[in-house]
Amino acid sequence: MLVLLHPYLQVQNPPMSEASEPQTILPLEVIDKSVGKKIRVLLTNDKEFTGTLIGFDDFVNMVLEDVVEESNDGVSDKVIKKMLLNGGQVAMIVPS
């Protein structure tokens, strides 16, 4: 597409960059970008934790810090300094 700026000057729009095309992002990449940030983790047993992700492995076992366990009614129940969550129990991870 050409854009007419002046009768003697024409500028062609640059081609679409790769950044404007949809990118494939792997699930572990999303988790990796969340290290050092707050995340919310929902477990298969309906427990929910919010805390800072310190690290994880290929099985999505996670180490969280300053964790708040929330009950089903939305009230914060416990504060846990540091915890290891078993990846086999994780139903959903919500990065902040």
Automatic annotation (TrEMBL):
GO cellular component, one term: U6 snRNP
Chain coiled-coil ranges: none
InterPro entries: LSm5, LSM_dom_sf, Sm, Sm_dom_euk/arc
UniProt cross-references to Gene3D superfamilies, sorted A to Z: 2.30.30.100
Compartments where located: Nucleus
Primary location: nucleus
Residues annotated as domain Sm: 26-96
GO annotation (BP), single: deadenylation-dependent decapping of nuclear-transcribed mRNA
A single GO molecular function term of this UniProt record: RNA binding
Keywords: mRNA processing, mRNA splicing, Nucleus, Ribonucleoprotein, RNA-binding, Spliceosome
Subunit relationships: LSm subunits form a heteromer with a doughnut shape.
UniProt record similarity statement: Belongs to the snRNP Sm proteins family.
Protein function: Plays a role in U6 snRNP assembly and function. Binds to the 3' end of U6 snRNA.
Protein name as it appears in the record: LSM complex subunit LSM5
Provenance organism: Suhomyces tanzawaensis NRRL Y-17324
Gene: LSM5
